[in-house]
Amino acid sequence: MMDIWRFDAIGTIWEIGTADPLPEGERDAVRETIDDFDQTWSRFRADSLVTALAEEPQEVPAPPDAAAMLDLYRELSLATAGAIQPLIGDSLASRGYDAAYSFRDRGARPAPADWTDRLAWDDGALALHEPALIDIGAIGKGRIVDVVHDLLGSLGHVERLTDAGGDMRVSGAPIRVGLEHPFDGTRAIGVATIADAALCGSAVNRRAWPGEQGGLHHVLDARTGEPVRTYAATWAVAAEAMVSDAVATALFFDGGAEFAAQHGVEWVRMTAAGAVEWSAGNRMEVFA
Amino acid sequence: MKLSPSVRQGSALVGIAGTLLLAGCAAESSSAETTTESATPQTSSAAAPSATSTAASADSGSTYKDGTYTADGSYQTPETVEKISVAITVSQDTVTKVEVTGDPQASETKHYQAQFIGGISAQVVGKKLDDISVSRVSGSSLTSKGFNQALATIRTEAKG
Predict the structure, then answer these.
(1) In this predicted structure, what is the pLDDT of residue B28?
(2) Is residue A201 part of a domain?
(3) How many domains would you assign to chain A?
(4) What pLDDT, on a 0 to 100 scale, did the predictor assign at position B70?
(5) What pTM did the predictor assign?
(6) Which of residues 263-282 of A touch B (CB under 8 A)?
């Protein structure tokens, strides 16, 4: 039985599991690591790097995680024909999911298709050439889960669980995780059994709010600025959380299943109409 | 109803491969044999060491002539007959290579093969979390208090 430490950070609820309770100094290290990441990448913070870049495009030394995340974004963007990309912050804010949580829909705003011309991340520098709000939500939570999980490992915790609001990674004993029904939180549509792996889930039910012409949610197609209407929930199991998070996002779009196959990632997804699709694999069981 | 194209294909392959190996040892004749499965899908296969075989010299002691044998098989879906081809290479009585190629007819088969999907179910089944003994749950990210409060506010405004 692991000791569970539960706390709020980066807009979600974390649970860290270790064999024995973490000493205070280690808890501080975890919180600091998460805060450093948040202060760089959160578009919800006035003091973040991405907020500063949006106001004043410029070149800065590349923050940790920039190259790893943006390289993966390039792959995702190609795989989904531009549906996923990191210069989508203004599109999200336009529909109301802005830094103030105003939830006031100001209409669909497609993200710039030429994002790789506007954003460069080579030679140890991060350069934004045109004003744009970076949002790394497609893979960011997975990345910080990996960073924290690795930190705990380096502190000597062999058996450990890092769960950021349902995106998780576990080392040591296997765990059974319910795949939450997106329309009924008291139910699961399946079960994942994972050991030394990461599971990320994504769905349209929580970050959802009223819009001008019908309900909106946070999984936008960058090409149109509109929320996806086909898939309601996705899950992916991979060795690392950043990759499983990326696949969970990609699965909302055409090209997602192929992207998953290329990365050897197992997945399940549910359509808005209540059908379920899954890849080959034996770590997730769908009740069907 | 749970559909699993890879399972249907697998059953067809078993039927075809068995027929192939039986035919392989009689390289001169062309025999057609129908294999039926007790449950759907139904498969049929015609085994012919055909023009695509590469003839290799056979060891006098082997049961099967070395070479590559192809057979075409089919399996039935509710809408179509799906064709697959199997090429088996035999060397010294051992199958050393199997290659399967498909010619999907059913749009659903094409769709699955093109879409890297392993299986589908037409209707989700939800089970109560209490009934399935899981230690945690994964879905959309849990939201913070600030988010929840802001959302509650806007939803109230939207109604009023």
Answers:
(1) 32
(2) no
(3) 1
(4) 80
(5) 0.77
(6) 270, 274-281
CB contact under 8 A, A165 and B2: no
For residue A207, is it within any domain?
no
CATH number of the CATH domain containing A122: 1.10.3980
Q: Tell if the CB–CB gap between B154 and A287 is shorter than 8 Å.
A: no
Q: What is the DSSP letter of B55?
A: B
Q: Return the DSSP state at A138.
A: T
Residue B120 has pLDDT above 70, yes or no: yes
- Residue B153 C-alpha, separation from nearest chain A C-alpha, in angstroms: 9
**Does residue A144 or residue A214 have the better pLDDT?**
A144
A275 interaction partners in chain B (CB closer than 8 Å): 120-124
Interface mutation vs chain B, best among A3, A12, A218, A228, most B CBs within 10 Å: A12
Range(s) of the domain holding residue A107: 44-128
Cα dihedral sign, A153-A156-A160-A161: negative
Whether the ω angle into residue A110 lies within 30 degrees of 0, i.e. cis, is no
The residue-averaged pLDDT of B98-115 equals 58
Domain boundaries, chain B: 2-121, 129-159
A76: in domain: yes
Distance from CA of A174 to the nearest CA of B (A): 10
Is the pLDDT assigned to residue B78 strictly greater than 90?
Answer: no
Closest-CA distance of chain B to residue A269, Å: 10
Q: What pLDDT sits at residue A269?
A: 98
Cα-to-chain-centroid distance, residue B86: 13
pLDDT digits 0-9 by tens, A248-287: 999 999 999 999 999 999 999 999 999 999 998 999 999 9
Q: Mutate which of A13, A104, A180, A268 to disrupt the B interface (most B C-beta within 10 Å)?
A: A180
CA distances for A119 relative to A61, A80, A116, A125, A143, angstroms: 13, 19, 5, 10, 20
